[in-house]
Amino acid sequence: MTHRRAAVAAALTCCLLATACGATVAPRTDRGPEPVTVDNCGQRITYPLPERAVAYDMSSTEKMFALGLADRMRGIVMPSTADPAVERSPYLDDYRSVETLSTDVLGLETVVAAGADWVLAGWNSGFSEDRGITPAKLAELGIKSFQHTESCFNYGANPVRVPPLEALYTDLEQLGRIFHVEDRAAALVADLRQRAEALRAARPAGEPARVFIYDSGTTEPFTSGRQASPDAIVSLAGGRNVMGHLDERWTTVGWEPVVAAQPEVITVVDYGDQPVEDKIAFLKSFPPLASTPAVRHDRFHVMDYGEAVSGPRNIDAAEDLAAYLRSIGR
User: Fold this and answer.
1) What is the DSSP annotation of 61-105?
2) Which pLDDT tens digit goes with each residue over 1-42?
3) Both 211 and 192 in a single domain?
4) In a domain, 263, yes or no
5) Is position 13 within any domain?
6) Dihedral class, residue 156 (left if φ above 0, else alpha if ψ from -120 to 50, else beta)
7) How many domains does the chain have?
Protein backbone atom coordinates (compact mmCIF):
# COMPACT_ATOMS: atom_id res chain seq x y z
CA MET A 1 0.00 0.00 0.00
CA THR A 2 3.00 2.31 0.29
CA HIS A 3 2.96 3.37 -3.35
CA ARG A 4 -0.75 4.27 -3.17
CA ARG A 5 -0.24 6.35 -0.05
CA ALA A 6 2.68 8.11 -1.70
CA ALA A 7 0.59 8.94 -4.75
CA VAL A 8 -2.23 10.31 -2.64
CA ALA A 9 0.22 12.27 -0.51
CA ALA A 10 1.71 13.83 -3.65
CA ALA A 11 -1.72 14.85 -4.91
CA LEU A 12 -2.70 16.32 -1.58
CA THR A 13 0.62 18.14 -1.25
CA CYS A 14 -0.18 19.83 -4.52
CA CYS A 15 -3.50 20.97 -3.11
CA LEU A 16 -1.83 22.34 -0.01
CA LEU A 17 -0.19 24.96 -2.19
CA ALA A 18 -2.77 27.49 -3.23
CA THR A 19 -0.91 28.50 -6.37
CA ALA A 20 -0.18 24.91 -7.40
CA CYS A 21 -3.63 23.46 -8.05
CA GLY A 22 -6.23 26.04 -7.23
CA ALA A 23 -6.70 25.37 -3.52
CA THR A 24 -8.77 28.07 -1.87
CA VAL A 25 -7.50 28.17 1.69
CA ALA A 26 -9.19 31.08 3.39
CA PRO A 27 -6.70 33.84 4.16
CA ARG A 28 -6.04 34.67 7.78
CA THR A 29 -6.89 38.23 8.71
CA ASP A 30 -7.15 40.04 12.02
CA ARG A 31 -10.77 38.95 12.29
CA GLY A 32 -10.27 35.60 10.58
CA PRO A 33 -12.40 34.02 7.87
CA GLU A 34 -16.17 34.07 8.17
CA PRO A 35 -17.69 31.34 10.36
CA VAL A 36 -19.30 28.43 8.55
CA THR A 37 -22.43 26.48 9.43
CA VAL A 38 -22.56 22.70 8.94
CA ASP A 39 -24.80 19.79 9.92
CA ASN A 40 -23.50 17.53 12.67
CA CYS A 41 -25.60 14.77 14.25
CA GLY A 42 -28.81 16.43 13.09
CA GLN A 43 -27.90 19.88 14.37
CA ARG A 44 -26.93 23.03 12.48
CA ILE A 45 -23.79 24.37 14.15
CA THR A 46 -21.86 27.52 13.29
CA TYR A 47 -18.09 27.32 13.67
CA PRO A 48 -15.54 30.12 13.72
CA LEU A 49 -12.16 28.95 12.48
CA PRO A 50 -10.71 26.77 15.29
CA GLU A 51 -7.35 27.98 16.55
CA ARG A 52 -6.74 25.51 19.41
CA ALA A 53 -8.20 22.24 18.16
CA VAL A 54 -8.05 19.04 20.20
CA ALA A 55 -8.64 15.59 18.69
CA TYR A 56 -9.37 12.36 20.54
CA ASP A 57 -8.05 8.95 19.51
CA MET A 58 -6.80 7.82 16.10
CA SER A 59 -10.07 8.32 14.25
CA SER A 60 -10.22 12.05 14.98
CA THR A 61 -6.49 12.64 14.80
CA GLU A 62 -5.89 11.00 11.44
CA LYS A 63 -8.84 12.78 9.83
CA MET A 64 -7.12 16.01 10.83
CA PHE A 65 -3.71 14.84 9.64
CA ALA A 66 -5.08 13.61 6.31
CA LEU A 67 -6.34 17.14 5.67
CA GLY A 68 -2.96 18.67 6.47
CA LEU A 69 -4.18 20.25 9.71
CA ALA A 70 -1.49 19.18 12.18
CA ASP A 71 -0.32 22.78 12.53
CA ARG A 72 -3.84 23.90 13.50
CA MET A 73 -3.98 21.58 16.50
CA ARG A 74 -3.48 22.44 20.16
CA GLY A 75 -2.99 18.76 20.95
CA ILE A 76 -4.33 15.24 20.96
CA VAL A 77 -5.69 12.89 23.60
CA MET A 78 -4.53 9.36 22.77
CA PRO A 79 -5.23 6.40 25.07
CA SER A 80 -2.08 4.42 25.77
CA THR A 81 -3.66 1.31 24.23
CA ALA A 82 -3.22 3.00 20.83
CA ASP A 83 0.54 3.48 21.26
CA PRO A 84 1.65 0.53 19.08
CA ALA A 85 -0.78 1.53 16.33
CA VAL A 86 0.45 5.13 16.42
CA GLU A 87 4.03 3.93 15.92
CA ARG A 88 2.90 2.04 12.78
CA SER A 89 0.89 4.93 11.38
CA PRO A 90 1.87 6.59 8.08
CA TYR A 91 1.15 9.86 9.92
CA LEU A 92 3.82 9.23 12.56
CA ASP A 93 5.69 12.46 11.79
CA ASP A 94 2.47 14.41 12.34
CA TYR A 95 1.84 12.60 15.61
CA ARG A 96 5.30 13.59 16.76
CA SER A 97 4.72 17.22 15.79
CA VAL A 98 1.58 17.65 17.92
CA GLU A 99 1.55 17.61 21.73
CA THR A 100 -0.07 14.63 23.40
CA LEU A 101 -2.17 16.17 26.17
CA SER A 102 -3.19 12.90 27.81
CA THR A 103 -2.83 9.15 27.35
CA ASP A 104 -6.14 8.49 29.08
CA VAL A 105 -9.73 8.81 27.86
CA LEU A 106 -11.04 12.23 26.86
CA GLY A 107 -11.70 14.36 29.92
CA LEU A 108 -13.17 17.81 30.46
CA GLU A 109 -10.31 18.90 32.71
CA THR A 110 -7.72 18.07 30.03
CA VAL A 111 -9.60 20.00 27.36
CA VAL A 112 -10.11 23.06 29.56
CA ALA A 113 -6.51 23.06 30.82
CA ALA A 114 -5.29 23.01 27.22
CA GLY A 115 -7.30 26.11 26.39
CA ALA A 116 -9.06 24.24 23.60
CA ASP A 117 -11.62 26.11 21.51
CA TRP A 118 -12.77 23.07 19.49
CA VAL A 119 -12.87 19.31 20.14
CA LEU A 120 -13.27 16.42 17.68
CA ALA A 121 -14.40 13.02 19.02
CA GLY A 122 -17.10 10.39 18.70
CA TRP A 123 -20.17 9.89 20.84
CA ASN A 124 -19.49 7.19 23.46
CA SER A 125 -15.98 6.96 22.05
CA GLY A 126 -14.74 10.23 23.50
CA PHE A 127 -17.76 12.32 24.43
CA SER A 128 -19.64 10.73 27.29
CA GLU A 129 -22.52 11.57 29.63
CA ASP A 130 -21.00 9.35 32.31
CA ARG A 131 -17.66 11.18 32.23
CA GLY A 132 -19.26 14.60 31.99
CA ILE A 133 -17.78 15.67 28.65
CA THR A 134 -20.54 16.28 26.12
CA PRO A 135 -21.04 18.76 23.30
CA ALA A 136 -23.61 20.56 25.47
CA LYS A 137 -21.22 20.85 28.43
CA LEU A 138 -18.44 22.12 26.18
CA ALA A 139 -20.79 24.68 24.64
CA GLU A 140 -21.55 26.02 28.12
CA LEU A 141 -17.81 26.70 28.44
CA GLY A 142 -17.58 28.36 25.03
CA ILE A 143 -15.87 25.38 23.40
CA LYS A 144 -17.16 24.14 20.05
CA SER A 145 -17.23 20.45 19.18
CA PHE A 146 -17.77 18.12 16.24
CA GLN A 147 -18.86 14.49 16.51
CA HIS A 148 -17.97 11.72 14.08
CA THR A 149 -20.95 11.17 11.82
CA GLU A 150 -20.65 7.41 12.30
CA SER A 151 -21.29 7.91 16.02
CA CYS A 152 -24.47 9.95 15.41
CA PHE A 153 -26.15 6.55 15.13
CA ASN A 154 -26.66 6.42 18.90
CA TYR A 155 -26.60 10.10 19.85
CA GLY A 156 -29.54 12.04 21.19
CA ALA A 157 -33.29 11.60 20.88
CA ASN A 158 -33.24 11.54 17.08
CA PRO A 159 -30.22 9.50 15.97
CA VAL A 160 -28.81 10.11 12.50
CA ARG A 161 -27.97 6.97 10.53
CA VAL A 162 -25.34 7.25 7.81
CA PRO A 163 -23.52 4.23 6.31
CA PRO A 164 -19.95 4.09 7.65
CA LEU A 165 -18.10 5.09 4.49
CA GLU A 166 -20.51 7.91 3.71
CA ALA A 167 -20.07 9.00 7.32
CA LEU A 168 -16.31 9.15 6.78
CA TYR A 169 -16.67 11.20 3.61
CA THR A 170 -19.11 13.54 5.37
CA ASP A 171 -16.66 14.11 8.21
CA LEU A 172 -13.79 14.94 5.88
CA GLU A 173 -15.93 17.34 3.83
CA GLN A 174 -17.35 19.04 6.92
CA LEU A 175 -13.91 19.37 8.51
CA GLY A 176 -12.72 20.85 5.23
CA ARG A 177 -15.39 23.52 5.52
CA ILE A 178 -14.78 24.21 9.22
CA PHE A 179 -11.04 24.70 8.65
CA HIS A 180 -11.48 26.38 5.26
CA VAL A 181 -9.55 23.71 3.35
CA GLU A 182 -12.39 22.54 1.13
CA ASP A 183 -10.14 21.72 -1.82
CA ARG A 184 -7.95 19.46 0.26
CA ALA A 185 -11.03 17.63 1.53
CA ALA A 186 -12.50 17.33 -1.97
CA ALA A 187 -9.25 15.85 -3.33
CA LEU A 188 -9.01 13.34 -0.51
CA VAL A 189 -12.65 12.24 -0.68
CA ALA A 190 -12.50 11.91 -4.46
CA ASP A 191 -9.49 9.60 -4.15
CA LEU A 192 -11.14 7.48 -1.45
CA ARG A 193 -14.36 7.19 -3.45
CA GLN A 194 -12.48 6.18 -6.59
CA ARG A 195 -10.55 3.46 -4.77
CA ALA A 196 -13.74 2.21 -3.08
CA GLU A 197 -15.48 1.97 -6.45
CA ALA A 198 -12.54 0.04 -7.90
CA LEU A 199 -12.87 -2.46 -5.05
CA ARG A 200 -16.59 -2.86 -5.64
CA ALA A 201 -16.01 -3.48 -9.33
CA ALA A 202 -13.37 -6.12 -8.55
CA ARG A 203 -15.43 -8.15 -6.07
CA PRO A 204 -15.67 -11.74 -7.26
CA ALA A 205 -18.97 -13.27 -8.29
CA GLY A 206 -20.62 -15.80 -6.02
CA GLU A 207 -21.14 -16.04 -2.29
CA PRO A 208 -18.88 -13.61 -0.40
CA ALA A 209 -16.40 -14.97 2.13
CA ARG A 210 -17.76 -15.17 5.65
CA VAL A 211 -15.63 -12.92 7.89
CA PHE A 212 -15.73 -12.54 11.67
CA ILE A 213 -14.22 -9.33 13.05
CA TYR A 214 -12.55 -10.02 16.38
CA ASP A 215 -11.56 -7.08 18.53
CA SER A 216 -11.09 -8.71 21.92
CA GLY A 217 -12.74 -10.75 24.64
CA THR A 218 -12.62 -14.36 25.79
CA THR A 219 -15.85 -14.98 27.67
CA GLU A 220 -17.72 -12.95 25.06
CA PRO A 221 -16.16 -11.50 21.91
CA PHE A 222 -16.27 -7.80 21.09
CA THR A 223 -17.01 -7.24 17.40
CA SER A 224 -18.38 -4.87 14.77
CA GLY A 225 -22.01 -4.63 13.70
CA ARG A 226 -23.18 -2.98 10.49
CA GLN A 227 -22.91 0.60 11.80
CA ALA A 228 -19.10 0.61 12.21
CA SER A 229 -16.33 0.92 9.64
CA PRO A 230 -15.14 -2.73 9.62
CA ASP A 231 -18.50 -3.84 8.22
CA ALA A 232 -17.99 -1.57 5.21
CA ILE A 233 -14.34 -2.62 4.92
CA VAL A 234 -15.27 -6.29 4.76
CA SER A 235 -18.00 -5.66 2.20
CA LEU A 236 -15.71 -3.62 -0.06
CA ALA A 237 -13.10 -6.36 0.12
CA GLY A 238 -15.58 -8.95 -1.16
CA GLY A 239 -16.52 -10.52 2.16
CA ARG A 240 -19.55 -10.58 4.43
CA ASN A 241 -19.37 -9.59 8.08
CA VAL A 242 -21.06 -12.51 9.87
CA MET A 243 -22.27 -10.04 12.53
CA GLY A 244 -23.38 -7.50 9.95
CA HIS A 245 -27.03 -8.19 10.75
CA LEU A 246 -26.57 -6.46 14.11
CA ASP A 247 -27.79 -2.87 14.09
CA GLU A 248 -24.85 -1.77 16.24
CA ARG A 249 -21.47 -0.13 15.96
CA TRP A 250 -19.14 -2.12 18.23
CA THR A 251 -20.83 -4.66 20.46
CA THR A 252 -20.44 -7.82 22.51
CA VAL A 253 -21.94 -11.09 21.29
CA GLY A 254 -21.93 -14.70 22.42
CA TRP A 255 -19.66 -17.33 20.94
CA GLU A 256 -22.61 -19.46 19.86
CA PRO A 257 -23.68 -17.24 16.94
CA VAL A 258 -20.06 -16.86 15.87
CA VAL A 259 -19.60 -20.62 15.68
CA ALA A 260 -22.97 -21.03 13.96
CA ALA A 261 -21.90 -18.57 11.28
CA GLN A 262 -18.88 -20.76 10.44
CA PRO A 263 -16.54 -17.89 9.50
CA GLU A 264 -14.02 -18.65 6.78
CA VAL A 265 -11.72 -15.81 7.87
CA ILE A 266 -11.24 -14.13 11.24
CA THR A 267 -10.00 -10.55 11.02
CA VAL A 268 -8.22 -9.59 14.24
CA VAL A 269 -7.93 -5.92 15.25
CA ASP A 270 -4.38 -5.11 16.36
CA TYR A 271 -3.86 -2.53 19.10
CA GLY A 272 -2.29 -2.23 22.51
CA ASP A 273 -4.80 -4.04 24.68
CA GLN A 274 -3.08 -7.36 23.97
CA PRO A 275 -0.49 -8.53 21.43
CA VAL A 276 -2.24 -9.68 18.26
CA GLU A 277 -0.26 -12.92 18.38
CA ASP A 278 -1.85 -13.69 21.76
CA LYS A 279 -5.31 -12.98 20.39
CA ILE A 280 -4.75 -15.37 17.49
CA ALA A 281 -3.30 -18.02 19.81
CA PHE A 282 -6.44 -17.81 21.94
CA LEU A 283 -8.72 -18.14 18.93
CA LYS A 284 -6.80 -21.17 17.70
CA SER A 285 -6.96 -22.87 21.09
CA PHE A 286 -10.58 -22.02 21.91
CA PRO A 287 -12.45 -25.36 21.57
CA PRO A 288 -15.80 -24.00 20.28
CA LEU A 289 -14.03 -22.43 17.27
CA ALA A 290 -12.12 -25.56 16.32
CA SER A 291 -14.76 -26.63 13.80
CA THR A 292 -14.86 -23.32 11.92
CA PRO A 293 -13.17 -23.09 8.51
CA ALA A 294 -11.13 -20.09 9.67
CA VAL A 295 -9.44 -22.09 12.43
CA ARG A 296 -9.21 -25.35 10.51
CA HIS A 297 -7.44 -23.60 7.61
CA ASP A 298 -5.48 -21.09 9.74
CA ARG A 299 -7.07 -18.09 8.07
CA PHE A 300 -6.38 -15.10 10.29
CA HIS A 301 -6.10 -11.62 8.86
CA VAL A 302 -4.76 -8.73 10.93
CA MET A 303 -6.31 -5.25 10.70
CA ASP A 304 -4.48 -2.35 12.32
CA TYR A 305 -6.48 -0.32 14.84
CA GLY A 306 -5.85 2.85 12.85
CA GLU A 307 -7.48 1.18 9.84
CA ALA A 308 -10.43 -0.27 11.75
CA VAL A 309 -11.75 2.98 13.25
CA SER A 310 -13.50 5.54 11.05
CA GLY A 311 -10.72 7.33 9.23
CA PRO A 312 -8.83 7.90 6.00
CA ARG A 313 -7.18 4.47 6.17
CA ASN A 314 -10.44 2.51 5.92
CA ILE A 315 -9.88 2.06 2.18
CA ASP A 316 -6.31 0.86 2.82
CA ALA A 317 -7.81 -1.79 5.10
CA ALA A 318 -10.31 -2.86 2.45
CA GLU A 319 -7.58 -3.13 -0.19
CA ASP A 320 -5.43 -5.22 2.16
CA LEU A 321 -8.31 -7.54 3.05
CA ALA A 322 -9.29 -7.91 -0.61
CA ALA A 323 -5.74 -8.99 -1.43
CA TYR A 324 -5.81 -11.49 1.43
CA LEU A 325 -9.13 -12.98 0.27
CA ARG A 326 -7.74 -13.37 -3.25
CA SER A 327 -4.66 -15.08 -1.84
CA ILE A 328 -6.79 -17.79 -0.23
CA GLY A 329 -9.00 -18.22 -3.27
CA ARG A 330 -11.99 -16.28 -1.97
Assistant:
1) HHHHHHTT-GGGEEEEE--GGGHHHHHH-TTHHHHHHS-EEESSS
2) 444 444 444 444 444 443 333 333 444 445 679 999 999 999
3) no
4) yes
5) no
6) left
7) 2
